[in-house]
Specification:
mainly alpha, about 650 residues, about 65% helix, two-stranded antiparallel sheet
């Protein structure tokens, strides 16, 4: 009799496209708004102060910013047509890079409300140019390898912490007013920040699932409630705010166009394109999606369209907001529709000043405590990306160290911007800007411009061979150079040669690993049988010369007579169980006890598992021998590396 039960669908829903239930969508979307709000309003506040605008104009700029932020976020996350919007959980916000140039443009055009028309004219042109140039920029992705994107994200996360620090150090009702001096923080303010951070950490530790995803929201609510009870949260601005406030296109007059202003904004958008690229890669890492040039082009088109729309709706240039990338990582909620819901909330806040005033009443130290967790999470994504980079290549380490150092220098000492000519202040005004540009330029210099310096890989007849020379070897010469990496056979080396030319030392390593991993079972067994049993290596049995060099005097002092007998018993049991030598890479063994314990566990394993473990030991031995070749060919660099290892 046929089974009448309906078959369950096995189609897996992409978590990026999954739509949470309405209650979860509402709460998680509002959490994004709370995390974003402080950063959203600070740009219009600073620009209004710089241009000397009155309170009414400032409020209008804030409302226009929130309204346009909502539209821009919906365009980016939900998408508009097939090629606009990256369709990832990325929220759009005003770029901090534009603040100083916009103030300069406005002041050059007369300052005050009079300067806004020229400012908006340059924003519109820059937005259109970004939209049109998006597909061309996306083709430059080869200039953004992990060493660049990882550095960029690490710089973003670490330098943004200064924003959270300022919220903690300077706070109070008067500090929120345009033109008012910030009020230095108190021990109570620090307690609010640390308390908010503690709530987030504790919830993440104790709870899982939905409760863990709203940890930041609960931290903000808890900190605000405590501040209100102690009299440090002031909601009087809610009653003073107008019930409705709708921005209209070209509210401050028809845009004016200045060549100098447009060039300034084009530079800003070029810089923000790099930031957007980093944010898209970061979000791709968090949600587990491989980023392609099409993703970058779609994201930049959304940036350009949103920026042009910002010029029309009395707002500012837009880019992906790194703060909310950190929130996605903390909450592990990958749905792009959560960000779309946040966009809807921001549109509502943009037309309801009273609702916005409620959010604005959250004390700065509370926001700072939550921001600290989110910004640090962005840096963690960068560190994860950098973990895939070969830092043994000195070029990569120089790129990361120099870019991170300059980014932190400008962040820790912002007054440095006043020491340089005005045309350079756009670079020195932001740690993210100078760190990002530095990483890109150094990557170009080291890997793309001129003859690429190739690291030495091996010594042949007393002279070092660099990677270029290795790529010129025929199969017989290549095999002669690298045959010592493996014992008893040469086919892994011969097969690795077929992958030449190699772009990097890492590619050369991967070729050896792939050759062993892709071999059939019979070949792998033959490879294993060519290695010396660890019992013979330690207790003085027959062993090949290279294996004895690998082992040296390692562990010999640990094996007393009792442990020697146990080692012989282990070797016999292993050989009876698997009929192959017990292979151990001794460089990864700390003591005789560890070797014996690991060996007995291997005896209890399945044959399939054990051959994988054994092949891993073989590859580690080959890797150590390869590293010895590189060290012999680069004695000075290896000496430095060894010195630093001793300091760790």
């Amino acid at each position: 009799m046929a089974n009448s039960q309906p078959k369950m669908s096995t189609t897996r829903i992409d978590p990026v496209n999954a739509v949470p239930s309405f209650p979860k969508l509402t709460i998680l979307g509002f959490q994004h708004v709370l995390a974003f709000y402080a950063g959203a309003v600070v740009v219009p506040l600073v620009i209004a102060t710089g241009l000397g605008l009155d309170s009414a104009t400032t409020v209008h700029l804030i409302n226009a910013d929130l309204f346009t932020c909502g539209i821009a976020s919906i365009i980016q996350s939900a998408g508009l047509g097939p090629k606009i919007g990256v369709r990832l959980p990325l929220l759009q916000g005003v770029t901090f890079t534009a603040v100083s140039p916009l103030i300069a443009v406005g002041l050059a055009a007369g300052g005050g409300v009079e300067g806004l028309a020229t400012m908006y004219g340059s924003i519109i042109v820059a937005g259109i140019a970004t939209f049109l140039a998006a597909p061309f920029f996306a083709k430059l992705l080869r200039f953004f390898p992990p060493v660049v994107t990882g550095t960029l994200l690490t710089v973003m996360g670490t330098t943004l912490i200064s924003v959270a620090a300022n919220d903690i150090v300077y706070w109070g009702t008067e500090a929120a007013k345009v033109g008012a001096d910030p009020i230095p923080g108190t021990l109570r303010g620090l307690a609010y920040a640390l308390g908010t951070l503690a709530v987030i950490v504790v919830i993440q530790r104790i709870f899982s699932g939905f409760m863990a995803t709203i940890a930041v929201l609960l931290g903000l609510l808890g900190g605000t409630v405590v501040a209100w009870i102690l009299g440090d949260a002031n909601f009087s601005a809610v009653s003073q705010a107008a019930p409705i406030g709708v921005t209209t296109p070209f509210f401050f007059g028809i845009p004016k166009f200045s060549v100098a202003a447009i060039i300034s904004m084009l530079i800003v958008m070029a810089i923000t394109a790099v930031e957007t690229t980093g944010d898209v890669f970061a979000t791709g890492e968090v949600v587990g999606k491989r980023i392609t040039p099409a993703h970058i082009a779609n994201a930049l088109r959304a940036d350009g369209l949103s920026t042009a729309l910002g010029g029309v709706l009395n707002s500012f240039p837009y880019t992906c907001f790194a703060q909310n990338v950190g929130l996605v990582r903390l909450t592990r909620v990958k749905s792009r529709w959560v960000v779309t819901a946040a966009g809807v909330f921001m549109i509502i806040l943009g037309v309801l000043p009273k609702a916005g005033a409620v959010v604005a009443s959250i004390p700065k130290p509370v926001i700072g405590g939550a921001s600290l967790a989110m910004f640090a999470a962005v840096a963690v994504v960068g560190i994860q990306t950098l973990s895939t980079v070969d830092m043994r290549d000195n070029r990569n380490s120089v790129i990361v160290a120099t870019s991170l150092g300059l980014g932190l220098l400008v962040t820790l000492k912002p007054e440095l911007a006043s020491y340089v000519p005005s045309w350079m202040q756009i670079l020195f005004g932001s740690g993210v800007t100078i760190g990002s540009i530095c990483a890109i330029i150094l990557n170009l210099l080291f890997f793309h411009i001129g003859r690429k310096p190739s690291p030495a890989v091996s010594m042949v007849d007393g002279r070092p061979l660099d990677l270029d020379a290795i790529n010129r070897l025929d199969q017989a010469q290549f095999t002669r150079v690298f045959a010592p990496m493996f014992s008893g056979v040469t086919w892994p080396v011969e097969r690795a040669w077929t992958h030449a030319p190699f772009d990097s030392v890492a590619d050369l390593r991967h070729a050896f690993q792939d050759a062993v991993g892709q071999a059939d079972r019979e070949e792998q067994e033959a490879l294993i049988s060519g290695y010396t049993d660890i019992v013979d290596l330690i207790l003085g049995g027959e062993a090949d010369e290279q294996a004895l060099l690998d082992t040296g005097s390692t562990l010999l002092g640990d094996f007393n007579s009792e442990k020697q007998e146990e080692l012989r018993a282990l070797g016999q049991a292993y050989h009876e169980r698997f009929n192959r030598p017990l292979i151990v890479c001794v460089s990864r063994v700390d003591s005789a006890d560890q070797l014996l314990a690991d060996g007995w566990r291997r005896v209890e394993g399945s044959d399939l598992r054990e051959i994988r473990v054994t092949l891993n030991e073989v590859m580690q031995i080959a890797e150590n021998r390869f590293e010895a070749m590189v060290a012999d060919a680069n004695p000075i660099h290896s000496a430095w590396a060894h010195s630093f290892d001793q300091l760790d």
